[in-house]
């Protein structure tokens, strides 16, 4: 009799504890696969403006400034930390300008827009053999590449790394001192 009185509450207590653990585990797994599922951030870049303040074939001069707007949308219920956002301006594959936006953090389910201004280095540009034939025609093909890499830590445990790259084709019309642009982005999920 004395034994049963001692064991029965212990058995009930143990059963309740196991049930609570099982329920918590189910809730946790369900939440993880719904609300807290890590999602890759969306990165969209657009060329918001280009200015050609000077253009000359000989001596070679091209004062070109490209303003790129980079919007990073973090769909996670956790903040997203990103490293330096580097925008490189290339001419026929060679880097002729660069802009760096310092590393930062975007809050849960928030969007941050960063602006990058890249100026062309005329001296470096003039050394590229394509400059003279392109400048003679008056059409110079440029490309900007903006890379954003970072990670979100969901529920303090699950990490998702993502790397996005946005490439914008910028075609400069030297004689008319204006330009056209078109951007395309790619996302790489993983660490
Ligand atoms: C073009 O850039 C050069 C070098 O940065 C500068 O000396 C010159 O004044 C600029 N010209 C114009 C019209 O902005
Ligand atoms: C560039 O300027 C010329 C002359 O002002 C204009 O006809 C042309 O449409 C402009 N192009 C762009 C892309 O703005």
Automatic annotation (TrEMBL):
<dbReference type="GO" id="GO:0098542">
    <property type="term" value="P:defense response to other organism"/>
</dbReference>
<keyword id="KW-0812">Transmembrane</keyword>
<protein>
    <recommendedName>
        <fullName>Late embryogenesis abundant protein LEA-2 subgroup domain-containing protein</fullName>
    </recommendedName>
</protein>
<feature type="domain" description="Late embryogenesis abundant protein LEA-2 subgroup">
    <location>
        <begin position="70"/>
        <end position="163"/>
    </location>
</feature>
<dbReference type="GO" id="GO:0016020">
    <property type="term" value="C:membrane"/>
</dbReference>
<dbReference type="InterPro" id="IPR044839">
    <property type="entry name" value="NDR1-like"/>
</dbReference>
<keyword id="KW-0472">Membrane</keyword>
<feature type="transmembrane region" description="Helical">
    <location>
        <begin position="12"/>
        <end position="33"/>
    </location>
</feature>
<dbReference type="Pfam" id="PF03168">
    <property type="entry name" value="LEA_2"/>
</dbReference>
<keyword id="KW-1133">Transmembrane helix</keyword>
<dbReference type="InterPro" id="IPR004864">
    <property type="entry name" value="LEA_2"/>
</dbReference>
């Amino acid at each position: 009799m004395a034994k049963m009185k001692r064991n029965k509450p212990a058995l009930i207590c143990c059963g309740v504890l196991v049930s609570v653990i099982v329920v918590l585990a189910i809730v946790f797994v369900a939440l993880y696969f719904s609300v807290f599922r890590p999602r890759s951030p969306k990165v969209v870049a657009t060329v918001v403006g280009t200015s050609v303040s000077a253009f000359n074939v000989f001596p070679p001069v091209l004062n070109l400034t490209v303003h790129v707007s980079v919007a990073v949308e973090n769909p996670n219920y956790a903040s997203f930390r990103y490293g330096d956002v580097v925008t490189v301006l290339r001419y026929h594959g060679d880097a002729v300008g660069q802009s760096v936006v310092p590393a930062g953090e975007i809050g849960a389910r928030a969007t941050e827009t960063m602006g990058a201004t890249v100026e062309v280095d005329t001296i470096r540009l003039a050394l590229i053999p394509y400059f003279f034939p392109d400048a003679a025609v008056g059409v110079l093909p440029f490309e900007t590449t903006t890379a954003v890499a970072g990670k979100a830590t969901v529920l303090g445990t699950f990490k998702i790394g993502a790397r996005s790259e946005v490439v914008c084709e910028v075609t400069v019309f030297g004689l008319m001192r204006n330009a056209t642009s078109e951007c395309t982005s790619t996302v790489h999920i993983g660490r």
